[in-house]
Amino acid sequence: MVAERTARVRALALGGVIGPPAFIGAWIAAAAATVHYSSIDSAISDLARVGAPTRVGMTAGFIVFGAGVIAFGVALRATLAGPAWMAAVATAICTLGVAATPLGGWSGDAAHAACAGAGYVTLVALPLLAAQPLARGGLITAARGSVAVGVVSGACLLASTLGPAHGFWQRLGLTVGDVWIVIVATLIVAGWDQARFGAS
């Protein structure tokens, strides 16, 4: 039973290995395929706007991220004590909400912005919520690194809402948080000791 549970957790954690790179790859490919599009000055969501030629590919990136990070969140729940897993699942749900409410679509841009904003908050919260249980497990460097990731990601995403180069800051903030997910997911796949970190 223990071996089966461990194998299931590792399989779920693969979602965190696959989802974020698929999302990043989608926005890189879509931006490269779009004439007169600036990744520095334009938001990722513009690539999934109703009528955009890259809508299908970028929307697929959102969906793969959302599905993968939900699975990762379930694996994190079994691996790390505390509410960090909830932030992971919430981030994924918000991303699926972004896909379901495209710019220029049926829901209006305000609903899209609300989903994106909530996703920013939960992505920043994820490593911050993981820091305390990591510290309790003796991984002080990992805990400090998680705090740093949350602070940097949050600062970048805030900058993306306030001033110029918002596409650059958005991408940097999301990438920093996504890299954290990939690293932690990879550790779980590699056999991160569940009992050590107080998971049930």
Relevant terms:
6 helices, single chain, 200 residues, globular, mainly alpha
Distance between the termini: 15 Å
Q: How many DSSP E strands?
A: 0
Give the count of structural domains: 1
The H-and-E topology, N to C, reads as HHHHHH
Share of residues in strands: under 5%
Secondary-structure class: mainly alpha
**Net shape:** globular
Number of helices: 6
Determine the fraction of residues in helical runs and give it as a percent range. over 70%
Averaging pLDDT over every residue, what do you get? 93
Report on the biggest sheet.
Answer: none
Q: Radius of gyration over alpha carbons?
A: 17 Å
Low-confidence stretches: none
How are the SSEs ordered, and which strands pair?
Blueprint: H1 2-32, H2 55-79, H3 84-100, H4 109-136, H5 140-162, H6 166-189
Helix pairs in contact: 1-2, 1-6, 2-3, 3-4, 4-5, 4-6, 5-6
